[in-house]
Amino acid sequence: MNCFTVATLLALGVTAFANTPNLETLRKALSTNQRIWTTRRSYERHTGDQKHQCVYAWKTYMDSENYYFDQYYRYGTNTWVRHPLRARLSEGQSGPVLTVRQPSGQKETPYILLYWDEAKNCGVLTFENSTTGEYECELHVGDSNQLQNEDTPCDHDYDTHCQGKKKYRVYEPDCSSHSPQGQ
């Protein structure tokens, strides 16, 4: 094997693991005081026949093991809904896990952080849909990306980590200017 091939293989190996997240990566990603937008996902949610759009998380409390946040979304012309949620942070076999539950503590949903790019302030989470048993994907992007159009810096990363999954657009250009928090 020549030196060029060895160097190429090493570079590919380093690149493949450069953005492999761990629990500390998850903590750093969530510790922001910005909104964290869900810009793309492999499924849709509706209220009646109105699609949920402009979905984002707003941190209300965080320590090394717990993350409390309000999840906001819009449906219809301008109806905003706020859901207070709680999550536990842990290290799982497939990567760092954010186990989300309602404050009443009923149902828990573990989300696995597949990918996080600190420089781009965005990443991919996956979870098992309790209705279908399928794994779903979500692309999350921080406010600092100045999301003024439909594309985000991590769309390609969603495609890479969620191959074969549908790609529904959840973020619209007017979302950040009309949201109830963080203006």
TrEMBL record:
- Presence of the UniProt keyword Phosphoprotein in the record: no
A Gene Ontology MF term for this entry? amine binding
Taxonomy, superkingdom:
Eukaryota
Record-linked Gene3D superfamilies? 2.40.128.20
Signal sequence bounds: 1-18
Which SUPFAM superfamilies does the entry link to? Lipocalins
Q: Does the keyword Cytoplasm apply?
A: no
A Gene Ontology annotation in the biological process aspect, one of them, is: symbiont-mediated perturbation of host defenses
Q: Which keywords annotate this record? A: Signal
The name this protein carries in UniProt is Putative licpodalin-4 1
Please name the source species.
Amblyomma cajennense (Cayenne tick)
- Upper taxonomic classification of the species? Eukaryota, Metazoa, Ecdysozoa, Arthropoda, Chelicerata
